Amino acid sequence: MNMMFKYIGKLSMATMIASALFACTSDPNSPGVEYMPDMYRSPSYETYIKKGDLDSASLMERLIEERSDLDSTERIAEFNLLKKAYANFMPVKGTVPVGFTPFPYGQSTEEYERAGLELKNPLPLPFSDSIVKQGQELFEIFCDHCHGAKGEGDGKMVQNDKFPAPPSYTSALKDLPEGKIFYTIHYGKGNMGSHASQISQTERWKIVYYVQKLQGKLTAKTVADSSAAPVDSIPVK
Amino acid sequence: MRQISSISSLLKLLAFTLLFVSTNVAAQDAAAGEKLFKKNCATCHSWEKPGTGPALKGAVDRIAPGSYGDVDSWLKAWIKDNAKLRASGDAYGNAVFAKYGTPMSTFGNLSDAELGEIVNFLRVGPSTPPPPSGGNDKVPGKDSTNTEEGSDLWLLLIIIAVSALVIIIFTGVNRSMKNVIKTKAGEEADEPKSMWDAMGHWITTHKKLASIIGFVVFLTLGKIGWDALAGIGIYQNYTPKQPIAFPHDLHAGKNEIDCKYCHSSARTSKTSGIPSANVCMNCHKAIDEGSRSGKTEIAKLYQYVGWNPDSAKYMTKDGKMRNDTAIEWVRVHNLPDFVYFNHSQHVEVGKVACQKCHGEVQEMEEVKQFSELTMGWCVDCHRETEVQFAGNDYYKKIHEDAKAENKHKKDFKFTVDKIGGLECAKCHY
Predict the structure, then answer these.
(1) Cβ separation of B203 and A6 shorter than 8 Å?
(2) pLDDT for B185-224, tens place per residue?
(3) Among A47, A48, A190, beta carbon nearest to B52
(4) How many helices and strands, by DSSP H and E, does chain A display?
(5) Confidence label for B119 from pLDDT (cuts 50, 70 and 90)
(6) Is the dihedral of CA A67, A70, A75, A77 positive or negative?
(7) Could you report the per-residue pLDDT of B355-365, keeping only the tens digit for each?
(8) Which of A95, A146, B339, B410 is the most buried (most CB within 10 A)?
(9) For residue B319, pLDDT beyond 80
């Protein structure tokens, strides 16, 4: 009996010390203990996964299998390169997403003017809230922190003196044609950067609608004049 | 003699007053000009650095007015309609245009007086900006609490260690005192017992108390062990150091940039998307100094993308843009590979706010994992959250059928689990 109590005493003492030590090592930089990493980590390339995060042995195996053109030194060089590289590569040059329409204007002042003259909004004009409201939602995500809720160049960034004020839609940009608005979202202008990677072409045209509404151009009359086609039939992506 | 001196002092006073008044007027003009400048010109011109257009510090001294005679009228003509001025064959205007390549907008809407104010501003320069708040801007106590917590723990441990030492010393002293008394009385001194022996002896003499203590210790250890096991694979509060100290509280909080501005693919795809560096550069071409870390952190971004803030151009390597270094952001939220989760489904269709799962990121200086991201957590939310039917025709039929079916039920809520939100194969396949 005495021995057993002794044993329990020793054991509990040791575990208490051990658990106290464990409690001290909660490091915000470490996610913690992982159970069966091979079930958690994807064997295929997921977004933002470094290839080196995958199993090195299987990466090497794959290299041996797939790249028979490399000799052993080249293979090691390639292995080291792949281990470092992220899976978010640029698409092969010349590839486009399915349904993507190329933008047939280059980046120059002449092309900007040309876009202003030629480029027309392919979306129909149902001022029935729906599209303009979608445009407004997108505007609130992508534009209003600089341009301001009403497009007067008084967004939060400008108020905080972080960014120079963009021109107002109701004065300097009052007569900016739709083609130029679209062009500017695509390529940027002045201090504004290109938003082509964040906003699809259809979404850009929706934003153009909302900007035109802020310019005071879209009124109930222009809408009544236009022949409204169902939104679904628009080919632009 | 006296008269002369008084006259000269009077003149001095007059001159001084005049000077004062005139500078004051110029300053007033310049203040109005600064306002106009901010509204009309600042989009492309800054005072110190070349942007889309040249930096305007010292512009009044650089300009060669040519046929316009003086700088003021040249500037006024240039601001009003620079294309006309260039067409007239002005050498300086054409040289500037050739250097920067982007034609300046025309400002026919500005009156002559306003143009004068702007020119005045260009002479005087911007009024001194308020000194940056610098390090004081930090979220109060963010860093210090962490270290305090640590030091508290250490303090506790040290106190325990010191008291244990004191107890050991005092028992030792106690024993030797007793031994001294015993030897004086002619008895045999006790042999010093080991700590374990003493403990064993104590346990055998206090069985009831010992078993109660043993039971409590067992429960505590069991609880600690259970929690430790249950915490495996749960990364809640994981706050990794990132390669660039990106402050979400400034971007999303103070400047109110929408989450989906940078994480734009959350609207359209499975992953919410860590923005590529071009999105950072949409603003950081113009902003090279942060309010918290000054230039150091933004300089890291420039290093990654190969941007030269002095020439305001991307550095090139073999004629191509440098793109050999990716910013290796450390992933904070990671679901296991056997779970399917789609951001667009939740953000666009479900209209779930980002904060529901990620916490108040707009208040976090460093992002940490807010939710536990366990299956129980998912399921709880699916049981509680009502489906967003408004403006979503996809579920129209199901919605109407279900409403008809559950007409008799009071307080019927159409939650996610009612449209299969708890089906295994929805997420595990």
Answers:
(1) yes
(2) 777 666 666 778 888 888 888 888 999 999 999 999 999 8
(3) A190
(4) 11, 0
(5) confident
(6) negative
(7) 999 999 999 99
(8) A146
(9) no
- A211 Cβ neighbours under 8 A, 6+ residues apart: A135, A139, A151, A169, A181
Q: What CATH architecture is B14-124?
A: Orthogonal Bundle (1.10)
d(CA B201, CA B193): 10
Q: How far is CA A51 from CA A47, A84, B29, B341, in A?
A: 10, 7, 61, 21
Partner B contacted by A29 (CB < 8 A):
yes
* pTM assigned to the model: 0.68
pLDDT given at position A85: 64
- pLDDT, residue A20, reads 56
Q: Is the pLDDT of residue A94 over 50?
A: yes
Cβ-contact B257, A145 below 8 angstroms: yes
Question: What is the spatial distance between Cα B136 and Cα A22, in angstroms, rounded to a whole number?
Answer: 35
Q: What secondary structure letter does DSSP report for B349?
A: I
Output the six-digit token pair for A57: 């042995």
| Nearest CB partner across the interface for A28, out of B234, B238, B274 | B238
Where are chain A's structural domains?
A: 33-89, 109-230
Structure tokens at B65: 């007015």
Please, are residues B413 and B386 in contact by the beta-carbon 8 Å criterion? yes
Minimum Cα–Cα distance from A18: chain B residue: B221
Indicate if ipTM > 0.85: no
Distance (Å) of CA B31 to CA B24, B90, B126, B127, B223: 10, 30, 8, 8, 68
**Whether the Cβ atoms of residue A206 and residue A142 lie closer than 8 Å to each other:** no
* A165 min Cα distance to partner chain B (Å): 6
Give the best residue of B133, B204, B224 to mutate against chain A (max A CB count within 10 A).
B224
CB of A150 within 8 A of CB of A210?
no
CA gyration radius, chain A? 29
Contact pairs from chain A to chain B, CB under 8 Å: 166
Q: B278 and A193 in contact by Cβ < 8 A?
A: yes
| CB of A159 closer than 8 Å to CB of A178 | no
Q: Would the CB atoms of B328 and A86 count as touching at under 8 Å?
A: yes
| Contact state of B261 with A140 under an 8 Å Cβ cutoff | no
- Domain A109-230 class in CATH: mainly alpha
Hunting for tokens 């007569």 — which residue is that? A175
Low-confidence winner among A184-188, B155-159, B386-390 (lowest mean pLDDT): B386-390
